[in-house]
Amino acid sequence: MYDDLMKDVQEKMQPAIDVAEVNKKALETLFSLQSEYVTDFVDSSVAQLKALSEVKDAKDAIELQVQFFKNLEVKMTSVAEKELAALTTAKEEISGIVEKSLSEIGEMPYVSDFNKFITEATEATTNAISEATAAVVPETVVPKTKAEPAAAAPAKKAPAKRAPAKRKPAAPKAAAKE
Question: d(Cα 6, Cα 11) in Å, to the nearest integer?
């Protein structure tokens, strides 16, 4: 029994294990690409510093720097493309695993049993409410046939309360003429 339980748990967890493996493989690829790039960058930078230390002319130093940055750009672009390809592959594999898992869920017997239960419970609740309503309200008001519900009369609105009007201060009375 324990072995059956463990086997069942392992089967149910297999998609999560597969996703973890895909992520692990993608991360290893990304780490490897970054590691190679950093190592190459450091080696190129050391070689560039050596070459610059031997140059006597400023024009040659500028040309070396321009060439260094062009090579750096090519390497960076290449690594970025490889990383993007690795991430795209991982995304596609994970999407496939998720789609497969979701399709298998719909085929499981307890999912269809649950859907049947929900349908039956909804019908039973609807019938119980209809019977309770019919018992309380005379039949002349609520017919037993399914008819469109009458539109409810709009609720009366309470008159809006008005804020008290602000009074202007009285103008001072003019002094009486003598």
Answer: 9
Angle at 125 (CA atoms; ends 131, 116), nearest 5 degrees: 140
What is the tally of structural domains in the chain? 2
Instruction: Give me the mean pLDDT over the 108-124 stretch.
Output: 75
Amino acid 122: pLDDT: 84
Domain extent at residue 129 = 108-140
At how many degrees (to 10) do helices 109-136 and 58-107 cross? Answer: 60
List, for residues 60-69, the tens digit of each pLDDT value. 999 999 999 9
Rounded alpha-carbon distances, angstroms, from residue 171 to 143, 168, 177, 178: 70, 9, 17, 21
* Residue 33, burial from CB neighbour count under 10 angstroms (0-12, 13-18, 19+): middle
**C-alpha–C-alpha distance, residues 75 and 40, integer Å:** 9
List the one residue out of 24, 31, 29, 22 whose CA is nearest residue 95.
22
Residues 113 and 28 in one domain: no
pLDDT at 6 over 70: yes
